[in-house]
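Our platform keeps sequence and structure together, in a single record for each protein. Such a record has a labelled line for the sequence and another for the backbone structure tokens. This encoding replaces a full spatial description with a residue-level series of whole-number codes. Below, we set out a record of this kind in full and without editing:
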Amino acid sequence: MAWLILLHQFAALVWVGGLFLMYLAVRPALAPLAPAEALPVWQALLGRFFVWIWLAVLALPLTGYAIVFGVWGGMGAAGWHVHTMQLTGLIMILLFGHVYFSPYRRLRQALAANDPAAAAAQLGKLRPFVLANLILGLITVALGSAGRYL
């Protein structure tokens, strides 16, 4: 069980920590750059980051359900915080799927077509989803770490 929890926590740390870094540090740091300079950096950053998010999207449900069903014996043994964590995690996965297959895909297409205005518009569409996932991620982490004590 310790290894399942550790992998679960690491996956959450990578995802939520990455969102925090992107939204609160990288985005403001790249804001002064011209779109022609910033957009390729964004494409490279997001491309690398999303590989790790896909791994987290696989690891988090697998380890979470392995703990719930393999160790606790099912969802009936899970507290309200685990049920809520499952809900917020699933919403995060759906939001990420939308980001990846919609604005991020169009961002890459616009950059491949050398259309920085369209690419910048798609990058702008990512921001509210990143913020929503960051907030949900922080709630989910709080539930995972302190939920049983609330």
About this structure: Residues 2-149 form one domain.
